[in-house]
Every structure is written in C-alpha cells, then in structure tokens.
C-alpha cells in the first residue's frame, strides 16, 4: 500500500463508510429497479418517492432506469374542471386492462402541497384497481417542488416506463399553465371538452387547440354535444399545425364516461393506438421524446444553478450586491453580471 | 493610423453606426428619465414599455433610473376575487390624491397575455383619474414574460419610483401563487378579506397571514363583518412572526369601498403611513428593499442563463445530449452536467 490512499482518506473522512453506503445504496437501487420491472408495486412506489423528493439517490436511480425506458406511451389528459377527467381516466384504465395492458396513472395537482401515495379524495373510485398488479396509481403535487411539474413528473414517468407500463395516463387537477406543461410531457394529448361549457373557445384561447392530438367530447348525451363537435371541427379547419402535409389531424371522439358507463371509450383507445402508430411512422414520436429530454436536461441544469445561487445567497456575496443596488451605486443588471461571474 | 483599428472594424462591422445608435439611445433614455421625473406621463409609459419588453435599452434604463429610486412606498393589495380590490385601489388613489401625493398603480394580471397601456375592463372607473397628472395607471401581464412577475414588476416599480411617486399600489388580478409574489415585492402588504367568504381560513391556508402587514375587512356593512374581525384577531393571536418583540402587529381596518363610498379608507391610509414610519425606524424597510434587490438580481441572472441555454438549444449541443438520453446511453443528470460544463 502506498501513502496516497492515506492522504485521500484525510481529505474525505471515513471513506470506507462512504463506500459502504454507496455500495448498499447501489444494491438497493438495483434491486428496486429489478423488482419494479418484475411488477412489484411497492418497488415502483419507492422509486417514485426517491426521484420525486430529489433524494441523494436520485442520480443513481435515473441512471439505473434510463436504459429500460422508451416503451411507454404517455397520454396526457387536459380539460376544464368538471369536464370529467377523472371518470374518463378510470374508464380508460378499465379498457386498457381489458386489453391486458400494463397501465400507470399520474394525477398531478399543481395547487396542492401534498404528494405521495395517498389518492386524491375524488379518486376513490380508482380503488377498483387497487388490488390489480397491472395498474400503478400515483397522485403528485407539483407546487413547492424544484421547478414544479417540469422537475418531478418526468422522473415519475421514467419509473413507470421502466416498470413496463404500456400506457401512462397523466391527468392534471386544476387549470391554467399546467395543462400546457402536461401536453409538453405527453406523446399523445387528449383534450376533453363538454357540451355547453364554452370549452371550445376556452381551448382556443389557452392554446390547447394547438397541443391537442385527440379531442374527447365527454358527456355526449347532453344537449349541444353535436354543436360542440361542429365548433371544434370549424376551429380545426382554420389551420395551424394540423393543416400541414402529412400532419396528424386530431380526431374528435364522443364519450359518455361515468361511474358505470364507458360509451365511446373503445373508440378513444383505438384512436390513441392509431396515434402511437403515427408517432412511430412519422418520426414525430422520436422528435417529441428528444424535445422532452432536452427540456428535462434544462430543468435539471437550472435547478443546479439555483442551488449554487442559494449558496451565494447564504454567503454575504449576494447581500452585498443587493445593498449596492438599494444604495443606488449599482443597478440590478450590473449586479447580476457580478453574481454570474462568481458562480 | 495603425492597422489595428482597421482589423477591429472588420470584426465588428460599421462601428460608427453602432456608436451612433448607442449615442442616440443614451440621449433618448436620459431625456425620458428627466421628463418622467418632471411628471410627464408619456415618458413614464414609454420607460415602462422599454423595461417590460426587455428591450435592448433595458440595462441602460435601469442604470439611469436606479440613482433616483428609494423614495416610493410600494403597497401590495391581495385578496380573493370579489373581495373588492379594484374599488379599494380606486378609493386609496382618491385619498392619496386628496393629500397631494403622487401615486402609481400597477394592476398585474398573471393569467393574461395582454399588457401595456390599455386598462383592464373592470378598471374603467379608474379613468376618473385619467386626466390627473399625479396618477400613473398601468396594467401588466406577467404570463409569458421571462420569469413572470419576478422579472417585469420590479422594473416597472423602479420607473414609477424614479418618476417621483410617493406610493405605488400593486394590485394582482386573480389568485394563487402570484399573491405571495406580490407580497414579496411590497413594502406594505394589504390583505383584503370580506365577511362570509371564508377568507380568513383561505388566508391562513395560503400563507397570506404571514405576509400581511394590514388587514382590510372590506364590505364591512355586511353581516358577519365583526365575526371576520374576531376570526382574524384569533388567528393573529396564535403567533407567527407578529408575536416577536418589536414586531409590527397587523392592524385590522374595516372599510366599505364602493363606487361612491370610501368609508374607512382614511384609517387605512393612516395605517399605511404608520407602517412606513415603522419600516424606517425598525430597519425592516431597508431589510425588505435589500431582499427584494437580491431576488431581482437572481431573476436577472437566471434569465441570462436561460438565454445562454437557448443558444445551446439553438445549436446542436443540447439536441445531441437529449438524443443520448432518449437512446438510453446517457441519463438526464449526466447530460445536465455536460450542458453546464458547456455554458
């Protein structure tokens, strides 16, 4: 033995223990990934917790999972509150299970600080599938997480993908910006509308028309359903990306998804399958996956930079820069240059 | 003449023209700032547009404004929709104008992509003050801006401060996270509640209790107003930062602010004045201004980093990293490390 390892040992105390912890963690992660791939729901849940909480094992988990990903079709469901997202999700799960597919469900609530294994209150009916090992259901909160949806959701999607899910349904609870974020994460985006809710116009306003791959007119037994379909057709006829040659033209499906009826769900499932084929044949699937990975890389890099700024913040450096701005002897842009020079 | 300037001229084409543009812009900005300080509303509006749109002159404008800032008291108004934020803002403007104060109003709509000089629909009554040179009213959209509220609002506040406003009222349209952001920008945060809306509990939930400097129970002629005051008193008695020695204990004012009545507004104005004195005497004002400057510096630095990532994005670098992740030969954390190494 030379003295070099000794010197290293002084710089990083207790190297054996560190190596031991690393070794144990690696074994744990490897075992968890193996078990998750064999269909063990507890291991899937544990892996999601590890990546969602940005635990120290996060990087290791991501590295272990990535080679096993790329199979799942991520299907995002968006639409105004009350349009029937939960019942539609439940009906889609039933249909996919009937086809023997393995299914993941992520219910994302951007307004809630609560997360984890607990089901959302109005999702109790999903417990139909609680004993079914082919379904993983997870509710997640994005508020308070580093970078919100952009950070936590892709991590959980990777776990469900590696665990062998054929389809992962991502449903957002609530409204606004997060709907568009979900669309950016999905291979296939379902936009749900209901008759008489003015959803068509809302959708156009929010930019949802542009991100829709499939329209689902739910509650189609209500008055005005046909008018809603006509409104959507008219809006689609106005152009946008759907009018380009070789483009996917979003089909409009009519459903009546309720507790005991799944009318129209088979057609939605068939359309989702067609969209998957189109994604593969057109190259659009590869393009979306790459775009998604790029966004995720950016989000991780930004979180790392924020962390470093936090360190500067903790030190006196940023405080001194801020005081100079308040005193009027500097301005925030000059100060930002100096901050960046220190990172 | 040596040959070196010639060589430089080749690298940066038309240096004379660049210098000319710079010279002209500098003169423009200087003149605009001078006119704004003299009370010219058009110059104020032009400066806000320059900083809000992140125009090339942005840095120059910030540098020219900063030495003239530090006078205005920034008063944030938050509260649930329907609580009467607009009418209260209008009543406060009337009261401040009656005292001969110069007033700025920023109405921030985080959900709207529209911005600029146009007044929000429900703010037409503010046109009472449209011909009054002592009031600047501006509606801003934060959606779509670099970093949202964190970016655009401090810039506009700086303009109004340098323009000699004694008080700037910042009112947010809508709900959620943006309310807390407004509080972080303000010297004095007014939390508006109304009887019978369960606002007290909402406020506690949203963390608004912790950020309130003054509570305003609006619509105090309604049933339940006294109960609302008692609820707030009880919640304040439970502790938090207000219970520390030397701390400011948020007063609770009752108002009936409507189109033609300003009952209680005088008391609110007096309380705002008292809070200003406390901010100065306690050192809390300086602390908040410094904290605010630190946040702004961070937001600008992050926007700069995002811009650089955008450049990498435009190039093939991020694309190649993303493709490696999709192919399963890298993972997003390793890719983020490589991206950061390239910045």
For the biggest sheet of chain A, the summary is: 7 strands, parallel
- Amount of beta strand of chain A: 5-15%
User: What's the multimeric state?
Assistant: homodimer
Number of E-type strands of chain A: 9
Arithmetic mean of pLDDT of chain A: 77
**Top-tier CATH class of the largest domain in chain A:** Alpha Beta
Features:
homodimer, 343 residues, alpha/beta, Rossmann fold, 3 domains, 7-stranded parallel β-sheet, two-stranded antiparallel sheet, 14 helices, 9 strands, 13% strand, globular, disordered N terminus
Descriptive report:
2 copies of one chain form a homodimer. Chain A is built from 14 helices and 9 strands. The first copy, chain A, has 343 residues and is α/β, with parallel strands linked by helices. In chain A, strands 3-2-4-1-5-6-7 form a 7-stranded parallel sheet, sandwiched between helices. In chain A, strands 8-9 form a two-stranded antiparallel sheet. The two termini of chain A are 39 Å apart. Chains A and B meet through helix 4, helix 12, helix 13 and helix 14 of A and helix 4, helix 12, helix 13 and helix 14 of B.
Secondary-structure blueprint:
The structure is a homodimer of 343-residue chains.
Chain A lengths: L3 H8 L3 H23 L3 H12 L5 H8 L7 E6 L6 H14 L4 E7 L25 E7 L7 H14 L4 E6 L4 H9 L2 E6 L5 H8 L1 H4 L2 E4 L7 H13 L14 E3 L1 E2 L4 E2 L1 H18 L1 H31 L2 H10 L5 H11 L1
Parallel strand pairs in A: 1-4, 1-5, 2-3, 2-4, 5-6, 6-7
Antiparallel strand pairs in A: 8-9
């Amino acid at each position: 033995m030379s003295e070099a390892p000794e010197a290293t040992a002084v710089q990083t105390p207790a190297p054996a223990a560190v190596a031991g912890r690393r070794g144990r963690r690696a074994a744990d992660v490897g075992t968890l990934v193996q078990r998750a791939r064999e269909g063990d729901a507890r291991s899937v849940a544990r892996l999601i917790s590890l990546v969602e909480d940005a635990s120290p094992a996060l990087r290791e988990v991501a590295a272990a999972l990535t080679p096993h990903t790329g199979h799942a079709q991520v299907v995002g469901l968006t639409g105004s509150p009350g349009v029937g997202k939960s019942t539609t999700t439940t009906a889609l799960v039933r249909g996919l299970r009937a086809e023997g597919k393995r299914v993941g469900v992520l219910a994302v609530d951007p307004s809630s600080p609560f997360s984890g294994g607990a089901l959302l209150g109005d999702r109790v009916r999903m417990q139909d599938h609680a004993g079914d090992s082919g379904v993983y259901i997870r509710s997640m909160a994005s508020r308070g997480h580093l970078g919100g949806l952009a950070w936590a959701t892709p991590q959980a999607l990777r776990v469900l993908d590696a665990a062998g899910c054929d389809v992962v349904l991502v449903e957002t609870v609530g409204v606004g910006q997060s709907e568009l974020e979900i669309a950016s994460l999905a291979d296939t985006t379902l936009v749900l509308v209901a008759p008489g809710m003015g959803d068509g116009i809302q959708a156009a306003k929010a930019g949802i028309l542009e991100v829709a791959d499939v329209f689902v007119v739910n509650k189609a037994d209500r008055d005005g359903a046909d008018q809603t379909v006509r409104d959507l057709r008219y809006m689609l006829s106005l152009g946008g990306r759907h009018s380009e040659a070789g483009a996917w033209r979003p089909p409009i499906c009519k459903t009546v998804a309720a507790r005991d009826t799944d009318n129209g769900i088979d057609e939605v499932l068939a359309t989702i399958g067609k969209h998957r084929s189109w994604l593969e044949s057109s190259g659009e699937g590869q393009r979306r996956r790459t775009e998604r990975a790029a966004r995720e890389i950016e989000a991780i890099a930004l979180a790392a930079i924020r962390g470093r700024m936090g360190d500067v913040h903790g030190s006196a450096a940023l405080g001194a820069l801020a005081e100079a701005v308040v005193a009027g002897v500097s301005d925030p842009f000059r100060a930002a240059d100096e901050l960046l020079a220190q990172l």
